[in-house]
């Protein structure tokens, strides 16, 4: 049963994922307590989805006093390795970031744990997410042209001066306000081979042994024009991930793998047999169940969670508009792209923190001058739109590099582009300049 909502609020946050929760915490940090945060589902997400919080995002979270809880739970990642099925090609070490930040690492932590930590922090400050409340309509208030009446499925209405749409890729707020949402390069698939993927959290029996199983390293395998990502969680998050009531000390591993179009569309929740086939076909040799590849074969034991999805890029035509109130889009409501590089949730969290800074300034300016214009809000929106375009471009570049073919490029070139890429990475990967540039690109420090 839906909870009773207040009739009025200064700020209404719609969506309690990482972006919405961060926005709420940022409001409190800025001494803005007149807000309501709602979500359409009855309880928070229990899937792990995003797994990396990069350096720039940790700094942003620290600026509003909410990084410590995440740092105490997550695994401080040392590097990202680019590998073949049996050997290492290149390693992006995060150590060079020491010159730029007090957080020279990527924090590996499942999204469900990130949300839980943020939720607990919010509750400790006396704020609850109001659930379940699904927005079904918005219209300008008849008495105040700077207020929007937001109506919910259960008939309740909240009148708000600012509305933050953090309600995901299928955003109701975006739809109601009529904001377009499309690929900035046009309505076509840029990288067809990596257009669909599966992701899963799994355990093995027996537990695999090999360099890729060491904690603190994310492994990205390039093989036959495919991409297979493998991240060991150890047993750090078993209490949050293994929800069947059976305590286990087994290591949990995250996989993410592209599925060639020719293989058909993956199931929305792939079963264990499907995931086993993906691991055997595309994964590192040391986690294969095929004795011809792995002298110590292992099998997928427990399928903790799985998801099949299509990858595409899209960005909202604008992230700020007015429908009476100032309406904003943050996170997936404002932009989506491939998960390669782990940039999506990071951008969403930083969006939320910087948005609250702009809203705070606008509220203060409005208190001094009720007729203040929207310059502050428009400048924020334009800056974040530009950032999102940069990140989308960055992830598309990573996709293209990851999908280069090993087949011969042409009759006059006996090797494929992927082989040339691998050779260049093997030769130059140890150079400090290359290490620093790669770590900087992933960290988000240049795209805050």
Automatic annotation (TrEMBL):
Cofactor section: FAD
> In this protein, which residues make up the domain named FAD-binding?
9-392
Q: Is Magnesium one of the keywords UniProt gives this record?
A: no
Q: Which UniProt keywords apply?
A: FAD, Flavoprotein, Oxidoreductase
Superkingdom per UniProt: Eukaryota
GO terms for MF? FAD binding; oxidoreductase activity, acting on paired donors, with incorporation or reduction of molecular oxygen, NAD(P)H as one donor, and incorporation of one atom of oxygen
PANTHER family registered for this protein in UniProt = BINDING MONOOXYGENASE, PUTATIVE (JCVI)-RELATED (PTHR43004:SF19), TRK SYSTEM POTASSIUM UPTAKE PROTEIN (PTHR43004)
> In its UniProt entry, what is this protein called?
FAD-binding domain-containing protein
Q: Which organism is it from?
A: Suillus discolor
What is this organism's lineage? Eukaryota, Fungi, Dikarya, Basidiomycota, Agaricomycotina
């Amino acid at each position: 049963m839906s909870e009773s909502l207040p009739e009025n609020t200064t700020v209404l946050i719609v969506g309690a994922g990482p972006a919405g929760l961060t926005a709420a915490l940022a409001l409190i940090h800025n001494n803005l307590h007149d807000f309501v945060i709602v979500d359409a589902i009855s309880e928070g997400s229990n899937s792990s989805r995003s797994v990396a919080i990069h350096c720039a995002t940790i700094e942003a979270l620290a600026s509003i006093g909410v990084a410590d809880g995440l740092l105490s739970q997550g695994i401080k990642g040392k590097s990202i390795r680019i590998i073949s099925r049996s050997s290492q090609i290149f390693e992006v070490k995060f150590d060079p970031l020491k010159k730029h930040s007090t957080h020279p690492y990527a924090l590996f932590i499942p999204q469900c744990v990130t949300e839980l930590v943020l939720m607990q922090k919010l509750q400790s400050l006396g704020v609850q997410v109001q659930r379940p409340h699904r927005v079904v309509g918005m219209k300008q208030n008849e008495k105040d042209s700077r207020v929007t009446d937001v109506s919910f499925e259960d008939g309740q209405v909240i009148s708000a001066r600012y509305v933050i749409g953090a309600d995901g890729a299928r955003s109701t707020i975006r739809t109601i306000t009529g904001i377009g949402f499309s690929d900035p390069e046009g309505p076509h698939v840029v990288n067809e081979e990596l257009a669909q993927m599966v992701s899963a959290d799994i355990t093995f029996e027996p537990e695999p042994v090999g360099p890729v199983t060491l904690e603190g390293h994310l492994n990205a395998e390039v093989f036959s024009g495919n991409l297979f990502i493998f991240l060991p969680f150890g047993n750090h998050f078993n209490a949050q991930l293994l929800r069947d009531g059976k305590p286990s000390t087994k290591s949990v591993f995250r996989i993410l793998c592209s599925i060639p179009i020719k293989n058909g569309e993956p199931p929305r929740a792939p079963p264990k047999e499907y995931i086993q086939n993906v691991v055997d076909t595309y994964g590192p040799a040391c986690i294969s169940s095929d004795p011809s590849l792995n002298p110590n074969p292992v099998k997928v034991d427990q399928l903790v969670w799985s998801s099949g999805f299509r990858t595409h890029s899209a960005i909202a035509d604008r992230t700020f508009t007015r429908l009476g109130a100032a309406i904003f889009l943050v996170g997936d409501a404002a932009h989506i792209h491939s998960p390669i590089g782990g940039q999506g949730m990071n951008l969403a969290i930083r969006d939320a923190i910087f948005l609250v800074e702009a809203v705070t300034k606008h509220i203060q300016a409005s208190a001094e001058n009720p007729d203040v214009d929207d310059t502050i809000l428009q400048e924020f929106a334009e800056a974040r739109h530009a950032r999102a375009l940069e990140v989308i471009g960055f992830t598309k570049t990573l996709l293209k590099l990851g999908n280069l073919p090993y087949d011969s490029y042409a009759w006059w070139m006996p090797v494929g582009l992927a082989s040339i890429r691998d050779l260049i990475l093997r030769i130059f990967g140890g150079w400090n300049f290359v290490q620093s540039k790669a770590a900087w690109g992933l960290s988000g420090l240049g795209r805050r």
